[in-house]
């Protein structure tokens, strides 16, 4: 089976025995590659001060060192998974890295 034809939903995993939200409403949501990458991207945006602090409701204080480290982590992940991603996954990480890099440059000014 070709890599792009794989059912990406089968590559994730869940904690617990329940496989649907109806069976266990408090179950942890399924994690897959895309969710993981988006989570890292959100962390980078938070560290750049682009998102509100959930506890204070106002923009988080920028920490560009942590933002750079998170972007570097995404870059490493992109390099290490090259050739092993589906088309959508590859486009997601590529576009996310581009956007984060552009935002980081703006934050440095």
Description:
This protein is an all-alpha fold. The protein contains three helices and no strands. The protein is flat and about 35 Å long.
Helix and strand succession? HHH
- Which consecutive residue ranges, at least 5 long each, have pLDDT under 50? 1-10, 13-18
Helix content: 40-55%
Number of helices: 3
Helix and strand content put the structural class at mainly alpha
Query: So what's the overall shape?
Result: flat
Strand content: under 5%
Key words describing this protein structure:
flat; disordered N terminus; about 110 residues; about 50% helix
Summarize it.
This protein is mainly α. Helices cover 50% and strands 0% of the residues.
Write the layout of secondary structure elements.
Blueprint: H1 33-47, H2 64-80, H3 87-108
Helix pairs in contact: 1-2, 1-3, 2-3
